[in-house]
Amino acid sequence: MPEAKETVLEIDLGALAHNYRYLRAKIDDGVKFLSVVKAFAYGNDSVIIARKLEELGTDYFAVAYVEEGIHLRKNGITKPILVLHPQFTHFEDIIEHCLEPNLYSEKILRSFVETAEAKNQKNYPVHIKLNTGLNRLGFDHPEIGTVKEIISSTSSLKIASVFSHLAASEDWKERDFTVGQIDLFRKMTWELIADLDYEPILHICNTSGVINYPKSAFSMVRSGIGLYGYGNDKNIDPELRPISTLKTIISQIRSLDKGDTVGYNRAFKVEKPTRIATLPLGHADGINRIYGKGKAGVFINGQYAPIAGNVCMDIIMVDVTNISCEEGDEVIVFGGPQHPVKFAEAGGTISYELITGIQRRVSRLVIPE
Ligand SMILES: *Cc1c(COP(=O)(O)O)cnc(C)c1O
Looking at the predicted structure, is the pLDDT value of residue 1 above 80? Predict the structure, then answer.
């Protein structure tokens, strides 16, 4: 791997391919695979990631917001794209860019029918979300009759899929709850699609669902975090490969003595002769203040350097007193010697929040498979 000359997020497409194949192998051949590439593909780069996943054979994509779907379409992504969280103001854009909305409430469903009819659509593919216990988006069980009524009253749309989302698929202590969600999904789905003369795709499993409940894959699974290399489980993490490594370099090194302080609010107090290295990244790049004051650290020449004092907007200082290093040396923030989950946990958060937070001003460096 090349040495970093500035702050870069390296994206390893070989690792992405490995993770895709690992997850794919967990489910039966006939089951479709939807790759979740919302939030800039969890902070990586949605176009680069989606192109590779198309090449690997993914069947579907999902994004959260319409703008994310339009960005993929404008960059040549052709597979179907499910928009997980649309608002009625987005429906014209959705149709214009051949995106497929999640319709999760009566208001949203009626409103999409209105737009689709006004635009003379026939059998426009939509996805119906059922609430089975997460209590976030979706129709509740007693609303199934209304959904059927609305759908059967128009020829403007067609149910491409029916889906739901698990609340605690990674947590074995919640196994009974999860099995209950899966059973309720089966029941609600059956009521919803029994009279249709076609068969929508059915899906409920996210990454941890694929890993822990592969028999409940129905006809599609939706995976996000697993593709990026995280299993939400200490036993699964070693099977997957985090696709991104955040690297930077040392801009400046200075030596300080007892009585000196480092950074804003003088949060790091020097007690003995200390060497401090200054790095060109900060909370505006996605390394939040929560990691400061020694909670987390970086790796320089294979050794751990804790963050000294507060994280600034564009700068972090680290303590390199015991490390042989010089200005210009490479620094690994996470990845390589520091598993990103370990870094995230040091800040009291989870992989999802750490990786989706890496800002776009950090340049991406793609390492091909
Ligand atoms: C984000 C999201 C996913 C992906 O979940 P992972 O745990 O990252 O696999 C799947 N389904 C829905 C509805 C989501 O919002």
Answer: no
Please name each of the domains of the chain with its CATH number.
Answer: 31-223 (3.20.20.10), 244-367 (2.40.37.10)
Q: Which of 36, 60, 82 to mutate to test the pocket of ligand 1 (most atoms within 8 A of CB)?
A: 36
**Ligand 1 atom, smallest distance to 129 CA:** 13
Atom of ligand 1 nearest to the CA of 226: 9
Nearest residue CA, atom 15 of ligand 1? 84
pLDDT number for residue 293: 98
The continuous run of DSSP H or E covering 148 comes out as helix 144-152
By alpha-carbon position, which residue is closest to atom 13 of ligand 1?
165
Comparing CA positions, the residue from 305, 332, 337 lying closest to residue 9 is 332
**Strand segments (E) across 218-271:** 220-223, 244-249, 252-256, 261-262, 268-269
Active site residues: 38, 264
Residue 311 host element (H or E): none
Tell me if 187 sits within 8 A of 199, measured CB to CB: no
Cβ of 224 closer than 6 Å to ligand 1, yes or no, is yes
pLDDT at 63 over 80: yes
pLDDT score of 178 more than 70:
yes
Is the minimum distance from the CB of 165 to ligand 1 under 6 angstroms? Answer: yes
Tell me the mean pLDDT in the region 165-184: 97
Per-residue tokens: 38: 């919302």
Positive/negative CA dihedral, 146, 152, 153, 158 = positive
Ligand 1 midpoint to CA 88 (Å):
22
> What pTM was computed for the model?
0.96
227 lines ligand 1 (CB under 6 A): no
Instruction: Provide the mean pLDDT of the chain.
Output: 97
**Strand extents, DSSP E, 250-359:** 252-256, 261-262, 268-269, 274-279, 297-300, 303-306, 316-319, 330-334
Residue listed under structure tokens 């917001």: 65
Asked if pLDDT for residue 3 goes beyond 80, the answer is no
Give Cα 351 to chain centroid, integer Å: 9
Q: Are 77 and 85 in contact (CB under 8 A)?
A: no
Q: Give me the pLDDT at residue 320, please.
A: 98
